[in-house]
Specification:
Layout: H1 3-9, E1 11-13, H2 27-30, E2 38-43, E3 53-56, E4 59-60, E5 64-67, H3 73-76, E6 81-86, E7 94-97, E8 106-109, E9 114-117, E10 121-133, E11 139-152, E12 160-173, E13 177-186, E14 191-194, E15 202-205, E16 209-217, E17 225-228, E18 230-237, E19 248-251, E20 256-259, E21 267-269, E22 276-280, H4 281-297, E23 308-309, H5 314-325, E24 341-346, E25 362-369, E26 372-377, E27 391-396, H6 397-413, E28 421-427
Parallel strand pairs: 22-28, 25-27
Antiparallel strand pairs: 1-2, 2-26, 3-9, 4-19, 5-6, 6-10, 7-8, 9-10, 10-11, 11-12, 12-16, 13-15, 13-18, 14-16, 17-20, 18-19, 20-21, 23-28, 24-27, 25-26
Helix pairs in contact: 4-6
Region (Disordered): 53-73
Signal peptide: 1-29
Keywords: Signal
Amino acid sequence: MSLSHRFSTATLVLVASLAAIVVPTSAAAAAGPAHGRLLAVLAPERPPAPTAITAPVTAETGPQCTPTPSGSRERRAGGVAFCVRTDKSAPGSLSAAGIAAADSFTCSVTGTNQMQYQRFESCLKITVSGTLVNSNGAPIGTATLNFVNSVMLNATTSAFEQQLTATVAATTGSVSQVAVSLTASCTSACTTTKANPWTGVKLLSRGQSATGTVTHSETLAKGAQDSFLLRYSAFITVPNAIPAQPTASWDGVVNLRCDNIVGNTAGCVYPGAQPDLQLSVATYKAAAMTYLWAQTYLPDAWGDGTPLRRLADESAANANRNRTCEDGTFVRLPDPPVPDDSCDEFPFAATYEGGTVGSLCADIAVIPEDGTWQVYEANPNKPVTGTEKCVRGHVTLFDNTNAGGELGRFTPRVRLLDLDKYTLTIVP
Protein backbone atom coordinates (compact mmCIF):
# COMPACT_ATOMS: atom_id res chain seq x y z
CA MET A 1 0.00 0.00 0.00
CA SER A 2 1.40 3.39 -0.95
CA LEU A 3 1.89 6.22 1.49
CA SER A 4 -0.72 8.30 -0.33
CA HIS A 5 -3.18 5.44 -0.04
CA ARG A 6 -2.48 5.22 3.67
CA PHE A 7 -3.55 8.86 4.00
CA SER A 8 -6.76 8.15 2.10
CA THR A 9 -7.70 5.02 4.05
CA ALA A 10 -6.72 5.87 7.59
CA THR A 11 -8.78 8.37 9.54
CA LEU A 12 -6.09 10.84 10.39
CA VAL A 13 -6.77 14.14 12.08
CA LEU A 14 -3.73 16.28 12.45
CA VAL A 15 -4.53 18.11 15.65
CA ALA A 16 -1.52 20.36 15.83
CA SER A 17 1.40 21.27 13.65
CA LEU A 18 4.77 20.10 14.83
CA ALA A 19 5.56 23.64 15.88
CA ALA A 20 2.38 24.38 17.82
CA ILE A 21 1.36 23.51 21.37
CA VAL A 22 -2.10 22.11 22.09
CA VAL A 23 -3.48 21.88 25.61
CA PRO A 24 -4.78 18.29 25.94
CA THR A 25 -8.10 17.53 27.57
CA SER A 26 -9.50 14.98 30.04
CA ALA A 27 -6.94 12.35 31.10
CA ALA A 28 -4.22 14.16 29.20
CA ALA A 29 -4.63 17.25 31.31
CA ALA A 30 -4.03 15.29 34.49
CA ALA A 31 -0.86 13.85 33.02
CA GLY A 32 0.27 17.09 31.42
CA PRO A 33 3.90 17.23 32.66
CA ALA A 34 4.53 13.59 31.69
CA HIS A 35 4.62 14.21 27.96
CA GLY A 36 4.73 16.97 25.38
CA ARG A 37 2.73 18.13 22.40
CA LEU A 38 -0.27 16.37 20.97
CA LEU A 39 0.80 15.36 17.44
CA ALA A 40 -2.12 13.48 15.96
CA VAL A 41 -5.21 11.38 16.55
CA LEU A 42 -5.15 8.06 14.70
CA ALA A 43 -7.66 5.34 13.89
CA PRO A 44 -6.80 2.37 11.61
CA GLU A 45 -9.15 1.10 8.93
CA ARG A 46 -9.42 -2.39 7.52
CA PRO A 47 -7.13 -2.74 4.48
CA PRO A 48 -8.23 -4.08 1.11
CA ALA A 49 -7.74 -7.79 0.40
CA PRO A 50 -4.26 -8.69 -0.84
CA THR A 51 -3.75 -9.15 -4.55
CA ALA A 52 -1.75 -11.82 -6.30
CA ILE A 53 1.24 -11.19 -8.58
CA THR A 54 0.89 -11.83 -12.31
CA ALA A 55 3.73 -13.02 -14.55
CA PRO A 56 3.71 -13.96 -18.27
CA VAL A 57 4.29 -17.61 -19.16
CA THR A 58 6.99 -18.26 -21.76
CA ALA A 59 6.57 -21.46 -23.76
CA GLU A 60 8.31 -23.24 -26.62
CA THR A 61 6.08 -22.29 -29.54
CA GLY A 62 6.95 -25.10 -31.96
CA PRO A 63 5.51 -26.18 -34.27
CA GLN A 64 6.09 -29.84 -33.44
CA CYS A 65 4.54 -32.10 -36.08
CA THR A 66 3.53 -35.74 -35.68
CA PRO A 67 2.61 -37.90 -38.70
CA THR A 68 -0.96 -39.20 -38.73
CA PRO A 69 -1.28 -43.01 -38.55
CA SER A 70 -1.86 -44.91 -41.79
CA GLY A 71 -5.52 -45.75 -42.26
CA SER A 72 -6.64 -43.28 -39.58
CA ARG A 73 -9.67 -41.08 -40.00
CA GLU A 74 -7.38 -38.07 -40.30
CA ARG A 75 -5.21 -39.73 -42.98
CA ARG A 76 -8.29 -40.70 -45.00
CA ALA A 77 -9.38 -37.06 -44.88
CA GLY A 78 -6.03 -36.04 -46.40
CA GLY A 79 -4.22 -35.05 -43.21
CA VAL A 80 -0.60 -36.18 -43.16
CA ALA A 81 0.58 -34.50 -39.94
CA PHE A 82 -0.77 -32.81 -36.81
CA CYS A 83 1.34 -29.79 -35.87
CA VAL A 84 1.20 -28.24 -32.40
CA ARG A 85 2.32 -24.84 -31.18
CA THR A 86 1.57 -22.66 -28.19
CA ASP A 87 -0.72 -19.70 -28.69
CA LYS A 88 1.21 -16.55 -29.63
CA SER A 89 -1.68 -14.21 -28.90
CA ALA A 90 -1.24 -11.46 -26.33
CA PRO A 91 -1.88 -12.62 -22.76
CA GLY A 92 -5.36 -12.03 -21.46
CA SER A 93 -6.38 -11.35 -17.89
CA LEU A 94 -5.86 -13.80 -15.07
CA SER A 95 -8.07 -13.35 -12.05
CA ALA A 96 -8.21 -14.84 -8.58
CA ALA A 97 -11.52 -15.15 -6.82
CA GLY A 98 -12.00 -15.29 -3.08
CA ILE A 99 -8.63 -13.89 -2.06
CA ALA A 100 -8.28 -13.80 1.72
CA ALA A 101 -5.64 -12.59 4.14
CA ALA A 102 -4.49 -16.19 4.60
CA ASP A 103 -3.22 -16.26 1.00
CA SER A 104 -6.07 -18.47 -0.18
CA PHE A 105 -7.59 -18.07 -3.64
CA THR A 106 -9.50 -20.05 -6.23
CA CYS A 107 -7.77 -20.76 -9.53
CA SER A 108 -9.99 -18.81 -11.91
CA VAL A 109 -8.39 -17.91 -15.22
CA THR A 110 -9.48 -15.92 -18.25
CA GLY A 111 -7.23 -15.10 -21.17
CA THR A 112 -4.10 -17.18 -21.61
CA ASN A 113 -0.36 -17.54 -21.06
CA GLN A 114 -0.18 -16.07 -17.57
CA MET A 115 0.60 -17.19 -14.06
CA GLN A 116 -0.70 -15.63 -10.87
CA TYR A 117 0.78 -16.42 -7.49
CA GLN A 118 0.88 -15.61 -3.81
CA ARG A 119 3.13 -16.88 -1.03
CA PHE A 120 1.72 -20.41 -0.91
CA GLU A 121 -0.15 -20.95 -4.17
CA SER A 122 -0.28 -20.28 -7.86
CA CYS A 123 -2.56 -20.55 -10.86
CA LEU A 124 -1.36 -20.86 -14.47
CA LYS A 125 -3.09 -21.09 -17.85
CA ILE A 126 -1.57 -21.68 -21.24
CA THR A 127 -3.26 -22.20 -24.61
CA VAL A 128 -1.98 -24.66 -27.21
CA SER A 129 -3.14 -24.94 -30.83
CA GLY A 130 -2.98 -27.97 -33.12
CA THR A 131 -3.39 -27.94 -36.91
CA LEU A 132 -4.02 -30.92 -39.17
CA VAL A 133 -2.23 -30.29 -42.48
CA ASN A 134 -2.36 -32.04 -45.85
CA SER A 135 0.57 -32.97 -48.07
CA ASN A 136 0.75 -29.39 -49.35
CA GLY A 137 0.99 -28.03 -45.81
CA ALA A 138 -2.50 -26.52 -45.98
CA PRO A 139 -4.67 -26.75 -42.85
CA ILE A 140 -7.73 -28.99 -43.00
CA GLY A 141 -8.66 -28.93 -39.32
CA THR A 142 -7.67 -27.42 -35.98
CA ALA A 143 -7.93 -27.94 -32.24
CA THR A 144 -7.44 -25.48 -29.39
CA LEU A 145 -6.56 -26.73 -25.91
CA ASN A 146 -6.30 -24.92 -22.61
CA PHE A 147 -4.02 -26.21 -19.85
CA VAL A 148 -4.65 -24.94 -16.32
CA ASN A 149 -2.71 -25.89 -13.22
CA SER A 150 -2.92 -24.81 -9.60
CA VAL A 151 -0.15 -25.35 -7.05
CA MET A 152 -0.69 -25.51 -3.30
CA LEU A 153 2.40 -25.20 -1.10
CA ASN A 154 2.66 -25.85 2.62
CA ALA A 155 4.55 -24.01 5.34
CA THR A 156 5.24 -27.21 7.30
CA THR A 157 6.17 -29.77 4.65
CA SER A 158 8.28 -29.83 1.50
CA ALA A 159 5.81 -32.22 -0.18
CA PHE A 160 3.18 -30.53 -2.33
CA GLU A 161 0.80 -31.25 -5.19
CA GLN A 162 -0.53 -29.68 -8.33
CA GLN A 163 -3.89 -30.09 -10.00
CA LEU A 164 -3.68 -30.06 -13.80
CA THR A 165 -6.55 -29.85 -16.27
CA ALA A 166 -6.51 -30.11 -20.06
CA THR A 167 -9.61 -28.93 -21.93
CA VAL A 168 -10.35 -29.05 -25.65
CA ALA A 169 -11.86 -25.61 -26.15
CA ALA A 170 -12.57 -25.92 -29.90
CA THR A 171 -12.16 -28.15 -32.95
CA THR A 172 -12.71 -27.43 -36.64
CA GLY A 173 -12.69 -29.26 -39.97
CA SER A 174 -11.30 -32.80 -40.02
CA VAL A 175 -10.21 -32.77 -36.36
CA SER A 176 -12.82 -34.25 -34.04
CA GLN A 177 -10.67 -35.69 -31.25
CA VAL A 178 -7.20 -35.16 -29.82
CA ALA A 179 -5.06 -37.47 -27.73
CA VAL A 180 -3.50 -35.77 -24.70
CA SER A 181 -0.95 -36.87 -22.14
CA LEU A 182 0.95 -34.65 -19.76
CA THR A 183 4.10 -34.95 -17.64
CA ALA A 184 5.25 -32.61 -14.86
CA SER A 185 8.75 -32.32 -13.44
CA CYS A 186 10.90 -29.90 -11.51
CA THR A 187 14.42 -28.63 -11.84
CA SER A 188 17.20 -28.91 -9.25
CA ALA A 189 16.94 -31.40 -6.40
CA CYS A 190 13.15 -31.48 -6.32
CA THR A 191 11.71 -34.97 -6.82
CA THR A 192 8.49 -35.52 -8.76
CA THR A 193 6.88 -38.43 -6.93
CA LYS A 194 3.90 -38.64 -9.31
CA ALA A 195 4.66 -37.16 -12.73
CA ASN A 196 1.44 -37.81 -14.67
CA PRO A 197 -1.96 -36.36 -13.71
CA TRP A 198 -3.71 -39.24 -15.47
CA THR A 199 -2.66 -42.64 -16.74
CA GLY A 200 -1.74 -42.96 -20.40
CA VAL A 201 -3.49 -40.93 -23.08
CA LYS A 202 -6.87 -39.24 -22.81
CA LEU A 203 -8.99 -38.96 -25.98
CA LEU A 204 -10.88 -35.68 -25.78
CA SER A 205 -13.55 -34.16 -28.01
CA ARG A 206 -14.58 -30.52 -28.05
CA GLY A 207 -15.68 -29.36 -24.58
CA GLN A 208 -14.19 -32.37 -22.78
CA SER A 209 -11.52 -32.17 -20.06
CA ALA A 210 -9.04 -34.42 -18.29
CA THR A 211 -8.04 -33.59 -14.71
CA GLY A 212 -5.62 -35.10 -12.21
CA THR A 213 -2.88 -34.36 -9.71
CA VAL A 214 0.89 -34.64 -9.67
CA THR A 215 3.04 -34.58 -6.54
CA HIS A 216 6.52 -33.36 -5.65
CA SER A 217 8.76 -33.45 -2.61
CA GLU A 218 12.23 -32.46 -1.54
CA THR A 219 14.51 -33.76 1.20
CA LEU A 220 16.56 -30.98 2.77
CA ALA A 221 19.18 -31.14 5.48
CA LYS A 222 18.70 -28.76 8.41
CA GLY A 223 19.84 -25.31 7.35
CA ALA A 224 19.50 -26.03 3.62
CA GLN A 225 17.32 -24.40 0.97
CA ASP A 226 16.68 -24.96 -2.74
CA SER A 227 15.03 -22.93 -5.50
CA PHE A 228 13.57 -24.48 -8.64
CA LEU A 229 10.98 -24.20 -11.40
CA LEU A 230 8.09 -26.52 -12.21
CA ARG A 231 8.19 -27.82 -15.77
CA TYR A 232 5.53 -29.28 -18.07
CA SER A 233 5.66 -31.42 -21.21
CA ALA A 234 2.51 -32.15 -23.20
CA PHE A 235 2.03 -34.80 -25.89
CA ILE A 236 -0.85 -33.70 -28.12
CA THR A 237 -1.73 -35.64 -31.27
CA VAL A 238 -4.62 -37.09 -33.20
CA PRO A 239 -5.75 -40.52 -31.91
CA ASN A 240 -3.21 -43.37 -32.18
CA ALA A 241 -0.37 -41.14 -33.38
CA ILE A 242 2.93 -41.50 -31.50
CA PRO A 243 4.93 -38.28 -31.10
CA ALA A 244 8.70 -38.63 -30.97
CA GLN A 245 9.03 -35.85 -28.40
CA PRO A 246 6.80 -33.47 -26.43
CA THR A 247 4.73 -31.34 -28.76
CA ALA A 248 4.48 -28.44 -26.28
CA SER A 249 6.59 -27.54 -23.24
CA TRP A 250 6.55 -24.68 -20.74
CA ASP A 251 7.90 -23.70 -17.34
CA GLY A 252 6.12 -22.33 -14.32
CA VAL A 253 8.04 -19.02 -14.74
CA VAL A 254 8.36 -18.21 -11.03
CA ASN A 255 10.81 -20.00 -8.74
CA LEU A 256 9.61 -21.95 -5.75
CA ARG A 257 11.82 -22.17 -2.69
CA CYS A 258 11.87 -25.00 -0.18
CA ASP A 259 13.91 -24.64 2.99
CA ASN A 260 14.66 -26.38 6.26
CA ILE A 261 15.87 -23.23 8.00
CA VAL A 262 12.97 -21.70 9.92
CA GLY A 263 10.67 -23.62 12.24
CA ASN A 264 10.83 -27.30 13.11
CA THR A 265 10.10 -28.70 9.65
CA ALA A 266 10.85 -27.97 6.01
CA GLY A 267 8.34 -26.08 3.87
CA CYS A 268 7.96 -24.28 0.55
CA VAL A 269 6.90 -20.83 -0.68
CA TYR A 270 6.98 -18.54 -3.67
CA PRO A 271 9.62 -16.16 -2.27
CA GLY A 272 8.82 -13.44 -4.80
CA ALA A 273 5.46 -12.88 -3.08
CA GLN A 274 6.08 -10.68 -0.06
CA PRO A 275 4.03 -11.79 2.96
CA ASP A 276 2.12 -9.25 5.03
CA LEU A 277 2.33 -9.11 8.82
CA GLN A 278 -1.02 -7.90 10.14
CA LEU A 279 -1.12 -6.53 13.67
CA SER A 280 -4.46 -5.74 15.27
CA VAL A 281 -4.82 -2.63 17.40
CA ALA A 282 -7.38 -4.51 19.50
CA THR A 283 -4.66 -7.01 20.43
CA TYR A 284 -1.41 -5.05 20.32
CA LYS A 285 -2.76 -1.63 21.34
CA ALA A 286 -0.16 1.16 21.63
CA ALA A 287 2.54 -0.98 19.99
CA ALA A 288 0.49 -1.31 16.79
CA MET A 289 -0.44 2.36 16.87
CA THR A 290 3.22 3.35 17.24
CA TYR A 291 4.01 1.50 14.00
CA LEU A 292 1.00 3.05 12.25
CA TRP A 293 2.10 6.55 13.26
CA ALA A 294 5.59 5.89 11.86
CA GLN A 295 4.16 4.53 8.60
CA THR A 296 1.93 7.55 8.26
CA TYR A 297 4.13 10.46 9.34
CA LEU A 298 7.78 9.48 8.93
CA PRO A 299 9.39 9.57 5.46
CA ASP A 300 10.36 5.92 4.96
CA ALA A 301 6.92 4.38 5.75
CA TRP A 302 8.55 1.07 6.78
CA GLY A 303 6.45 -1.95 5.98
CA ASP A 304 4.21 0.18 3.78
CA GLY A 305 6.03 2.34 1.24
CA THR A 306 9.32 0.61 2.11
CA PRO A 307 9.34 -3.19 2.73
CA LEU A 308 11.06 -4.53 5.82
CA ARG A 309 13.80 -7.16 5.47
CA ARG A 310 14.16 -9.90 8.04
CA LEU A 311 17.43 -9.97 9.97
CA ALA A 312 17.93 -13.59 11.03
CA ASP A 313 21.09 -13.07 13.10
CA GLU A 314 19.84 -12.89 16.69
CA SER A 315 22.99 -11.29 18.06
CA ALA A 316 22.80 -8.58 15.37
CA ALA A 317 19.13 -8.00 16.23
CA ASN A 318 20.03 -7.63 19.92
CA ALA A 319 22.74 -5.15 18.98
CA ASN A 320 20.18 -3.19 16.95
CA ARG A 321 17.79 -3.11 19.90
CA ASN A 322 20.49 -1.93 22.28
CA ARG A 323 21.64 0.77 19.87
CA THR A 324 18.10 2.13 19.56
CA CYS A 325 16.68 1.67 23.05
CA GLU A 326 19.71 1.55 25.35
CA ASP A 327 21.72 4.56 24.20
CA GLY A 328 20.82 6.46 27.37
CA THR A 329 18.38 8.89 25.74
CA PHE A 330 15.11 7.01 26.33
CA VAL A 331 13.33 8.59 29.32
CA ARG A 332 10.60 6.35 30.70
CA LEU A 333 7.22 7.89 31.47
CA PRO A 334 5.40 7.45 34.79
CA ASP A 335 2.10 5.68 35.39
CA PRO A 336 0.00 7.50 34.29
CA PRO A 337 0.19 7.97 31.38
CA VAL A 338 2.06 4.71 30.51
CA PRO A 339 2.04 1.87 33.05
CA ASP A 340 5.15 -0.36 33.02
CA ASP A 341 6.69 1.78 30.27
CA SER A 342 9.14 0.19 27.82
CA CYS A 343 10.95 1.16 24.63
CA ASP A 344 9.33 -0.30 21.51
CA GLU A 345 11.56 0.38 18.51
CA PHE A 346 10.43 0.58 14.91
CA PRO A 347 11.70 -0.46 12.40
CA PHE A 348 12.01 -3.68 14.38
CA ALA A 349 15.40 -4.66 15.72
CA ALA A 350 15.17 -7.94 13.80
CA THR A 351 15.26 -6.13 10.44
CA TYR A 352 18.04 -4.69 8.35
CA GLU A 353 16.21 -1.36 8.59
CA GLY A 354 16.47 -1.36 12.39
CA GLY A 355 19.36 -0.30 14.60
CA THR A 356 19.36 3.48 14.20
CA VAL A 357 20.88 5.23 17.22
CA GLY A 358 18.03 6.07 19.57
CA SER A 359 18.90 9.75 19.89
CA LEU A 360 17.91 10.09 16.22
CA CYS A 361 14.47 8.51 16.70
CA ALA A 362 11.13 10.22 17.23
CA ASP A 363 9.97 9.53 20.80
CA ILE A 364 6.18 9.24 21.04
CA ALA A 365 3.56 8.09 23.51
CA VAL A 366 0.33 6.70 22.07
CA ILE A 367 -2.36 6.97 24.71
CA PRO A 368 -6.04 5.91 24.55
CA GLU A 369 -8.21 8.88 25.46
CA ASP A 370 -11.93 9.53 24.98
CA GLY A 371 -12.27 6.50 22.69
CA THR A 372 -9.43 7.52 20.39
CA TRP A 373 -5.68 6.95 20.15
CA GLN A 374 -3.84 10.21 20.75
CA VAL A 375 -0.19 10.54 19.78
CA TYR A 376 1.99 12.75 21.97
CA GLU A 377 5.54 13.92 21.80
CA ALA A 378 6.96 11.84 24.64
CA ASN A 379 9.83 14.09 25.67
CA PRO A 380 9.37 17.88 25.46
CA ASN A 381 13.16 18.22 25.52
CA LYS A 382 13.48 16.06 22.40
CA PRO A 383 11.12 17.60 19.82
CA VAL A 384 9.65 15.43 17.07
CA THR A 385 10.49 16.82 13.64
CA GLY A 386 8.75 14.31 11.36
CA THR A 387 12.00 13.57 9.50
CA GLU A 388 13.34 10.85 11.81
CA LYS A 389 14.58 7.46 10.55
CA CYS A 390 13.05 5.52 13.45
CA VAL A 391 10.49 5.79 16.23
CA ARG A 392 10.60 4.76 19.88
CA GLY A 393 7.16 4.16 21.28
CA HIS A 394 6.43 4.37 25.01
CA VAL A 395 4.49 1.13 25.26
CA THR A 396 3.56 -1.10 28.20
CA LEU A 397 6.01 -3.97 28.49
CA PHE A 398 3.18 -6.49 27.97
CA ASP A 399 2.06 -4.96 24.64
CA ASN A 400 5.68 -4.55 23.52
CA THR A 401 6.48 -8.21 24.25
CA ASN A 402 3.19 -9.38 22.76
CA ALA A 403 3.82 -7.63 19.43
CA GLY A 404 7.38 -8.97 19.32
CA GLY A 405 6.03 -12.47 19.91
CA GLU A 406 3.70 -12.20 16.94
CA LEU A 407 6.63 -11.15 14.75
CA GLY A 408 8.44 -14.26 15.97
CA ARG A 409 5.47 -16.48 15.11
CA PHE A 410 5.07 -14.83 11.73
CA THR A 411 8.60 -15.82 10.67
CA PRO A 412 8.06 -19.62 10.47
CA ARG A 413 4.42 -19.23 9.48
CA VAL A 414 5.40 -17.61 6.17
CA ARG A 415 8.89 -19.14 6.03
CA LEU A 416 10.67 -15.80 6.19
CA LEU A 417 14.41 -16.23 5.62
CA ASP A 418 17.24 -13.78 6.11
CA LEU A 419 16.82 -10.74 3.81
CA ASP A 420 13.28 -11.76 2.81
CA LYS A 421 11.05 -8.72 2.40
CA TYR A 422 7.68 -8.34 4.05
CA THR A 423 5.05 -5.68 4.61
CA LEU A 424 3.25 -4.59 7.76
CA THR A 425 -0.42 -3.67 7.95
CA ILE A 426 -2.12 -2.31 11.06
CA VAL A 427 -5.76 -3.36 11.28
CA PRO A 428 -8.48 -2.53 13.81
